[in-house]
Write a structure and sequence with these properties.
Layout: H1 2-24, H2 27-44, H3 46-65, H4 68-76, H5 78-82, H6 85-106, E1 114-122, E2 127-135, E3 142-151, E4 154-162, E5 166-167, H7 168-183, H8 185-201
Antiparallel strand pairs: 1-2, 2-3, 3-4, 4-5
Helix pairs in contact: 2-3, 3-6, 4-6, 4-7, 6-8, 7-8
Length: 202
């Protein structure tokens, strides 16, 4: 009897130990958790790093978490298909610079913010929607939903829904479309680089 009880306790201990690990292994959620942890670490050292240091620290983290080439391809639509290979390469590079510069500029300090994952559900076109919020002392939480998709075994962020509704990628597509129709791909590349330079300079 004593041996049987011991076996049951050991089995339960094994199950209880395995459950949290299994929950943490969800690939879509893991991408968001890792990115938020990296972002929070940079925020806590923001003043010491300065904007250039934040850019350097965030660059590999953002490139790993986001599928930036796909995002700029979607944001430029038919103009991407009309662009030559050299223009496409410069578009991706400029979009990466602007994306990283935006985070480096925006997350410039830490005052007790907490990142929380609230919910997760299937999204359209084989995506997963990971709903999060940024809890800010003395202010209302900011709500962000990350759109995550698998590419050859790797999960990447492909869009962010602001307040769980407004697609950041759709906003950029609308903004870029006006410039592309008026001045073309090279003008958009120059604009993205100029904006990135301005954000880092600040």
């Amino acid at each position: 009897m004593r041996s049987f009880t011991l076996k049951v306790l050991l089995l339960l201990a094994g199950v209880l130990t395995a459950l949290p690990a299994a929950a943490q292994e969800d690939p879509a959620r893991t991408v968001i958790q890792r990115f938020q942890q990296d972002l929070l670490a940079v925020m806590k050292e923001a003043k010491i790093l300065g904007v250039t240091g934040r850019y350097q620290r965030l660059q590999p983290k953002i490139e790993e978490a986001f599928h930036l080439p796909l995002m700029i391809r979607v944001a430029t639509g038919s103009f991407w298909r009309k662009a030559d290979k050299e223009q496409q390469s410069r578009l991706v590079a400029a979009f990466k610079r602007l994306s990283i510069s935006t985070y480096a500029n925006r997350f410039d300090g830490y005052s007790g913010q907490v990142f929380e994952i609230v919910d997760q559900r299937p999204g359209p076109q084989k995506t997963v929607l990971v709903k999060t919020r940024i809890v800010r002392p003395g202010d209302s939480p900011a709500r962000l939903t990350y759109v995550v998709k698998e590419f050859k075994g790797q999960w990447r962020i492909v869009d962010i829904l602001l307040d769980d509704d407004i697609s950041e990628l759709a906003v950029r597509r609308s903004e870029y479309s006006r410039l592309l129709k008026k001045n073309g791909v090279d003008a958009l590349i120059a604009t993205l680089n100029d904006k990135a330079d301005g954000l880092v300079a600040q």
